[in-house]
């Protein structure tokens, strides 16, 4: 009895199938865009230029240690209280030049939002979660004041219009909105300084 020939598998269309699957996955897969912490770097300065001088009362110092504890202006503080303390510092209006500030006008605290700087220093062993939480609270303090002023001047919240402009969802005159956004940012500039992290125990 003669041996039957083994039937061959037709592999001619395998390349086409693989190509179609590749196209399918490329089209249907969504690539997530990671969002970082938005920070504007200072302009490049020549080496021989001295850094600007700030009065000590215009600097709000936030230290985070290796145990994720906050030391704010040399006092221990809970994270939940940080935002309100930062708002009080930024909105103080100590020198009387800020016409829109509603703070205590304490001469021992910041002069006005344009001169106020928040300085953050972390330990190298600070948890990333705590680091982000501190950043969120401080940015939220700036956004609170910006929302308040944009509501007073223009009748809308800074954060909502800024988000709509960033995402391309703004319905209206974008140039006019951007001018108003810039005006609010000039009134309450985000001056958040990050010092180099400390080594543990120092």
Automatic annotation (TrEMBL):
Top-rank lineage group of the source organism: Bacteria
Subcellular location field: Cell membrane
Sorted UniProt keywords: Cell membrane, Membrane, Protein transport, Transmembrane, Transmembrane helix, Transport
Recorded topology in the membrane: Single-pass membrane protein; Single-pass type II membrane protein
Gene Ontology molecular-function annotations: transmembrane transporter activity
Gene Ontology CC: one annotated term: plasma membrane
Matches recorded under Pfam families: ExbD
GO biological process, one term: protein transport
InterPro entries: ExbD
Membership in a protein family: Belongs to the ExbD/TolR family.
Protein's recorded name: Biopolymer transporter ExbD
Provenance organism: Patiriisocius marinus
């Amino acid at each position: 009895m003669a041996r039957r020939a083994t039937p061959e598998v037709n592999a001619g269309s395998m390349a086409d199938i693989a190509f179609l699957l590749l196209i399918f996955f490329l089209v249907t897969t969504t690539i997530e865009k990671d969002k970082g912490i938005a920070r504007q770097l200072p302009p490049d300065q020549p080496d021989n230029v001295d850094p600007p001088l700030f009065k000590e009362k215009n600097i709000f110092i936030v230290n985070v240690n290796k145990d994720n504890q906050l030391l704010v202006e040399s006092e221990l503080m809970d994270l939940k209280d940080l935002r309100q303390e930062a708002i009080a510092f930024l909105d103080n209006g100590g020198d009387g030049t800020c016409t829109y500030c509603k703070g205590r006008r304490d001469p021992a605290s910041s002069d006005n939002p344009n001169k106020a700087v928040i300085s953050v220093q972390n330990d190298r062993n600070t948890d990333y979660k705590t680091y982000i939480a501190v950043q969120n609270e401080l940015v939220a303090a700036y956004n609170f004041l910006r929302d308040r002023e944009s509501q007073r001047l223009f009748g809308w919240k800074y954060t909502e219009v800024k988000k709509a402009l960033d995402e391309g969802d703004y319905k209206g005159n974008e140039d006019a909105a951007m001018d108003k956004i810039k005006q609010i940012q000039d009134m309450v500039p985000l001056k958040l300084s990050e010092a180099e992290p400390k080594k543990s125990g120092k």
